[in-house]
Specification:
With 295 residues, this protein is mostly helical. It has twelve helices and no strands. Helix 6 packs antiparallel against helix 12. 47% of the residues are buried.
Length: 295
Amino acid sequence: MPESHLRGVLLAALGAIAFSGKAIIVKLAYRHDVDAVTLLALRMIVALPLFLLMAAWAWRRSPSLSGGDRVRIVVLGGLGYYLASYLDFAGLAHITATLERLILYLNPTLVLLIGVLFLGRRASRAQVLALLVSYAGVVLAIGHDLEVGGSNIVLGSALVFGSALSYALYLIGSGEIVERVGAVRLTAYASTVACVFCIVQYLLLRPLDGLLTLAPEVYGLSLLNGTVCTVLPVLAVMMAVARIGSARAAQIGMIGPVSTIVLSVLLLGESMGPWQIAGTVLVLAGVFLVGRRRA
């Protein structure tokens, strides 16, 4: 294997594992009496300077944006990063980290469904079968959470599904503009917009001094969340795509749900029953088939 290709594989794996670790960080932080609005604001406060640096780097190497593209980036940033992040954090208060990761991993199937239902695209029989397999896996995983016990499992699952749907809409909406703006600049600008939205949301809904009275563990976890689980995976995946292509990077990204399961068992003490194992296998198989057919 060429060295550049090996580096691309390792970067894709690192990005998938780091991004999946976000759910673990959030679940650990929830043990210290903090809510989703506050936790999301802290994450974005940490990430904002890094995204601004990325945006400045991209701005110096690119032509100016049209007014229409600026509006589209604000909308995409609010939809794909702000709303998706908030719904995800809110849902994690009610469901396990493994179930959250499996629901979010339905993104490719949601993109396919939206294309078929609203954009006039066609799905093959194999793709339809893959969709059924994926969603059957999520149902099994939800059944595991209901069996183990917990409040508002359905609510939490619905919130995280809304997050996945929001990000799927972002992916569809960014398909055209990314060719004009560039992937790095779009990601940097949209992420910066999301950071601002999350911080403003906190200022509107929570007292400012509330950020100064949190448990020390929350600050440490938010530092990890904003860097290792937010900015690092963005950079790692972009560099991986440049070396091995988006299709291969997406396939390697399947390690994400598996790493979440391992980390949730080791760090959170979450149980892993046969329903969840079966659900994980079905979701991974379905998403793999959807991605393979689309490629």
